[in-house]
């Protein structure tokens, strides 16, 4: 209990409302405190193990080089190194995670650490009009294990229809029946209410129910059922309905890609893992169009690594297209404009989908005791005992208060399949004011003046939120390089809510109507649940509750759950948007694959971390089959910790 208790009490001091003044220095203070906590927890024995490396740097040769250690990259490094004769190098631009990432409760705050690249989308018209700077924040993991160390751990595979449509687009081997075994292969499921044939025990990745539930979430789950939404295992045979959240948790702690797939195999002699190694170029022979290695920086020096078989790009939906373009694979006009020699003209970064959300649906209840009380919980010694001893309690909450999901098909949907959702409702047991505006308003880029109008009057009162997430947007954006300097961020254009028929906005409005209907069900009505009717600044000209008002509101405080896909789209040769083939090989470049969410051709009815694990599992078998190795039948090497 010694050093861990000290650490967690320090966390409590960070999240105690009112500890810091709400001024421009708040985040700097927070970041400094977190860094100090990192140093402190490194002293905690037997909790984290470093990845030491004393090997050769420049011109070392491997069979496979994996770029990026997110969920797909970690799986690839693990599965390929199952073949003892294959030498595998995994390169990660960030550092190792520390124990603070283990605490689900502080997930949101981790976006303000060096574990996040800190990307922002470009300011555009038509959405995010009320956001700070008029733009979206796009967190992207820069740490061993990637975004699985800073995300909210919500585990959702997607809908059967998602994958069947991939296959129908000309991608054989990617139907739901094809990919389900790969979802199962990773999983170690401990879920109370489940469709058993859709889950398994014994995989590397631990998945469980969130151990803590407030009375408000119980009331909402009951109300949703009263409104006609059945209770389902949303990772089972049917997705439409309501459920408590399933999370990537092990004993109440975060189960990241690093913990699940890398830590158990870090002692393999044929696997080398380098952190703080930023790849700046994939080396491709311009004559043979063959990838043969990478150039990267580490310890303030440039190094090269040579790949005998393949380079596998797993840098994620934002960084994979950047690296391809920097290496000469991308739209010819754009690369020539920047002076980058063109190796292969491909539509890299030309299309980018993301899941937009709306943070303006606030619900007041007349009993504040059913709502998460951050100050009370973080100052209660029992909270720490529950977490450390039993893996339960407040600190197991996903990002403080994510509790339940409901998949709905709104009356705005034009999809012919009646079982295909168009909205995910994310129920949280608190609001952006739960921490008095310290962290969560900043995550959604809500400026202080807007917070003061909408959320501040309800501090210390019964306030909850439901975030509608648009799972199948018709709007899509794109990526451009800022320059050929690999250390310059790319330019990200989200283009939210830009579809010509305004269908995305209409779907959001329909989702708000369904939320209104659900909270009028008896289980919520007994707590006096009602929408907060404060006019969102900039929308005062519209009557509250009208379609025009909600459209204005959605375009004013637009948010995102940073699920970018399709930037290196998978497709058949005749698809003019395709960058990789159905075996994830880059068109026109030998020995180069992309293995991450960037290959996903359409938005999925999911949070993209779980599909990313699946892509890694399937791709590892594709690589093994290509190089003449049968799938291994060996047992997993997962360890507790």
From TrEMBL:
Keywords: FAD, Flavoprotein. Belongs to the GMC oxidoreductase family. The keyword DNA damage does not apply. Gene3D superfamilies: FAD/NAD(P)-binding domain, Glucose Oxidase, domain 3. Residues 473-616 form the Glucose-methanol-choline oxidoreductase C-terminal domain. GO terms for molecular function: flavin adenine dinucleotide binding; oxidoreductase activity, acting on CH-OH group of donors. The active site is at residues 563, 607. It holds the Pfam family GMC_oxred_N. Residues 62-356 form the Glucose-methanol-choline oxidoreductase N-terminal domain. It comes from Exocentrus adspersus. Its cofactor is FAD. FAD binds at residues 143, 279. This is Uncharacterized protein. InterPro entries: FAD/NAD-bd_sf, GMC_OxRdtase, GMC_OxRdtase_N, GMC_OxRtase_C.
């Amino acid at each position: 209990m010694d050093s861990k208790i000290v650490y967690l009490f320090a966390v409590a001091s960070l999240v105690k409302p009112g500890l810091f003044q709400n001024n421009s220095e708040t985040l700097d203070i927070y970041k400094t405190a977190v860094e100090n906590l990192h140093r402190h927890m490194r002293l905690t024995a037997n909790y984290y193990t470093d990845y030491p490396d004393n090997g050769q740097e420049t011109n070392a040769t491997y069979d496979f080089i994996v770029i990026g250690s997110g969920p797909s990259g970690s799986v690839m490094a693990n599965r390929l190194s199952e073949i003892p004769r294959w030498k595998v190098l995994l390169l990660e631009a960030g550092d190792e995670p520390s124990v603070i990432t283990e605490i689900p409760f502080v997930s949101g705050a981790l976006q303000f650490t060096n574990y996040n690249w800190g990307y922002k989308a470009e300011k555009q018209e038509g959405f995010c009009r009320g956001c700070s700077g008029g733009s979206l924040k796009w967190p992207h993991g820069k740490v061993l294990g990637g975004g699985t160390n800073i995300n909210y751990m919500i585990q959702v595979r997607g809908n059967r229809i998602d994958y069947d449509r991939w296959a129908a687009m000309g991608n054989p081997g990617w139907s739901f029946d094809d990919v389900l075994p790969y979802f199962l292969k990773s999983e170690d499921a401990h879920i109370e209410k489940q469709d058993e044939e859709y889950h398994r025990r014994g995989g590397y990745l631990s998945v469980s129910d969130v151990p803590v539930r407030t009375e408000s979430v119980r009331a909402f789950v009951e109300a949703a059922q009263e409104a006609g939404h059945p209770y389902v295992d949303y990772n089972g045979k049917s997705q439409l309905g309501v459920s408590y959240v399933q999370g990537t948790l092990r004993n109440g702690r975060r189960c990241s890609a690093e913990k699940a797939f890398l830590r158990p195999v870090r002692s393999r002699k044929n696997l080398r893992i380098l952190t703080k190694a930023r790849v700046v170029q994939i080396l491709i022979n311009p004559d043979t169009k063959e990838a043969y290695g990478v150039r990267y920086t580490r310890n303030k020096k440039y190094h090269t690594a040579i790949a005998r078989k393949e380079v596998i790009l797993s840098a994620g939906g934002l960084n994979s297209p950047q690296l391809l373009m920097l290496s000469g694979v991308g739209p010819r006009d754009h690369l020539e404009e920047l002076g980058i020699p063109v190796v292969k003209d491909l539509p890299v970064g030309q299309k980018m989908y993301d899941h937009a959300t709306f943070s303006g649906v606030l619900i007041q209840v007349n009993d504040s005791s059913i709502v998460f009380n951050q100050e009370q919980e973080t100052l209660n010694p029992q909270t720490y005992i529950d977490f450390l001893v039993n893996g339960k309690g407040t600190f197991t909450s996903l990002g403080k208060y994510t509790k339940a999901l409901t998949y709905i098909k709104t009356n705005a949907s034009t999809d012919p399949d009646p079982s295909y959702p168009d909205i995910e409702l994310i129920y949280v047991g608190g609001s952006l004011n739960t921490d008095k505006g310290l962290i969560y308003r900043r995550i959604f880029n809500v400026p202080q003046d807007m917070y003061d109008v909408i959320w501040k009057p309800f501090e210390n009162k019964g306030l909850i939120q439901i975030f509608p997430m648009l799972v199948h947007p018709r709007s899509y954006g794109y990526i451009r390089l800022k320059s050929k300097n690999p250390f310059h961020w790319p330019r990200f254009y989200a283009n939210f809510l830009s579809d010509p028929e305004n269908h995305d906005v209409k779907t959001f409005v329909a989702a708000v109507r369904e939320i209104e209907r659900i909270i009028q069900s008896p289980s919520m009505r007994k707590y006096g649940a009602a929408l907060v009717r404060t006019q969102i600044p900039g929308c005062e000209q519209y009557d509250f509750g009208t379609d025009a008002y909600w459209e204005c509101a959605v375009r004013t405080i637009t948010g995102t759950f940073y699920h970018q896909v399709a930037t290196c789209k998978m497709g058949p040769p005749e698809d003019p948007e395709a960058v990789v083939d159905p075996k994830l090989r880059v068109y026109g470049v030998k020995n180069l694959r992309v293995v991450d969410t960037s290959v996903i051709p359409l938005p999925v009815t999911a949070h993209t971390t779980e599909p990313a694990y699946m892509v890694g599992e399937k791709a590892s078998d594709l690589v093994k089959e290509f190089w003449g190795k049968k799938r291994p039948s060996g047992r997993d090497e997962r360890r507790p910790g």
